[in-house]
Amino acid sequence: MRNVAIIGSTGSIGTQTLEIARDNRDINICALSAGSNIDLLEKQTREFKPELICIGTYELAEELKLRLKDVDVRITYGMDGLIEVACIESSDILVTAIVGMIGIKPTVAAINAGKDIALANKETLVTAGHIIMSLAKEKHVSILPVDSEHSAIFQALQGNTHGDIAKIHLTASGGPFRGRTREELKHVTVGDALKHPNWSMGKKITIDSASMVNKGLEVIEARWLFDVNPDDINVVVQPQSIIHSMVEYRDGAVIAQLGTADMRLPIQYALFYPERRYLRGDRLDFSKLSEIKLEKPDMDTFLGLKYAYEAIKTGGLMPTVLNAANEKAVALFLQEKIQFLDIYTLIRESMDNCVNMENPQLGDIFDMEQWVYNFIESRCR
Ligand code: NDP
Ligand code: MG
Q: What pLDDT sits at residue 197?
């Protein structure tokens, strides 16, 4: 039996994790959490019968208690509740399907409690990668990547030796705006940015894909997950999202993982690693693949990628600044309070104005997150 807790069960990754649970009888769902979607959390609770669930606020928790009074489940709320879900005694593994830096505290708590982590919540590794990876080592827990590119790299690393890695080639679809100029990006709308060509995902990561900040966050995520130098991580645009990423070894061999654009595969691989199980769904049909294109990313237009390389090379709190500024800017863009290119401007200004430090601890990371939010609010008044 695989005993699984999920933070962010009502989102894109969360619901696909539950699809895997539906198809695999030996998954037991111990605990679930959502921010505000009580309708879906109620439905999931009735279907999967977790011991514990958590929702964003006290008021929503009270409402859920009324709705679920015929069900034997404990209901909590807020950050304390999220941490309880992450650390629930009966679980073996936590799926971090929540979006944003809110995932840091529950992830750290789960590692301290000895839980393996199926990590989708990349913002946690981007900002606190140095803390998370060394804590995981100390506590002997596995951090299993769910992000499709990182799962592909993880799969391509199996049976090989870390010292033999020459380069990681992280693939990117290029998003809905691939090939556009800066001028053409000036007036794109939220609706335009939400039209991802290949993947159906939550709103925040879909905007991040359009700006290519997502690929920048993934470079930093790869740096921590696989302990590689940022200079050895190369981003290559592969618009069809068939090659999910590649590892080049020192003898010149390149090992890639290919597949359809279906997040259930990396989720299932993380849950059952090292076992591979049957997965319902389409298979790659090589006869229909007329060509797989590979291109260089346009880092002068899609500045998110350029800034991410700068942030990870500078180190300290700079990845936190990049990530927090992006979280805030994307929220403002989704509310139609700023234009698409302002996302880059706000990241740049935050990076230029912050006071960096070496080897930040969790408290420093949260202080910097707050500084960035205040800074951007003062800029956007
Ligand atoms: P979604 O927006 O679809 O889902 C986010 C989940 O987190 C929802 O369950 C949401 O609850 C919950 N949540 C959001 N804010 C809060 C909060 N303040 N307190 C408690 N819960 C909250 O995101 P995705 O599933 O797309 O992404 C999740 C993570 O996985 C992100 O870090 C993303 O970068 C990463 N990822 C996603 C991929 C994908 O295909 N979607 C691919 C690779 C990585 P509610 O529904 O109630 O709002
Ligand atoms: Mg990805």
A: 85
Determine whether the shortest distance from the Cβ of 214 to ligand 1 is under 6 A.
no
User: How far, in Å, CA of 166 to CA of 229, rounded?
Assistant: 10
Mind listing the pLDDT tens digit for each residue in 52-71?
A: 999 999 999 999 999 999 99
Q: What atom of ligand 1 comes closest to residue 214's alpha carbon?
A: 34
Task: Return the ligand number nearest the Cα of 97.
Answer: 1
Alpha carbon separation from 242 to 8, 57, 118, 205, 257 (Å, rounded): 27, 40, 22, 19, 8
The proportion of the chain whose per-residue pLDDT surpasses 90, expressed as a percent, equals 95
Residue closest via CA to ligand 1's atom 26 equals: 202
Burial 3-14 (b: 16+ CB within 10 A, else e): bbbbbbbbbbbb
- Identify which of 205, 211, 220, 334 to mutate to test ligand 1's pocket (most ligand atoms within 8 A of the CB): 205
Q: Establish whether the linkage from the previous residue to 274 is cis, with ω within 30° of 0.
A: yes
Which residues make up the environment of ion ligand 2, defined by Cβ < 5 Å? 147-149
266 lines ligand 1 (CB under 6 A): no
Ligand nearest to the CA of 150: 2
Q: What are phi and psi of 206, to 5 degrees?
A: -70, -40
H-helix or E-strand spanning residue 64: helix 58-67
- What sign has the CA pseudo-torsion 109, 110, 111, 113? positive
Tell whether the model's pLDDT for residue 236 goes beyond 80.
yes
List phi, psi (to 5°) of 75: -120, 125
- Distance between Cα 35 and ligand 1 center (Å): 9
Given a contact cutoff of 8 angstroms between Cβ atoms, the answer to whether 46 and 71 are in contact is: yes
Summarize pLDDT for 276-324 with one digit per residue, the tens.
999 999 999 887 777 889 999 999 999 999 999 999 999 999 999 999 9
Q: Roughly what angle, to the nearest 10 degrees, separates helices 362-380 and 342-353? A: 130
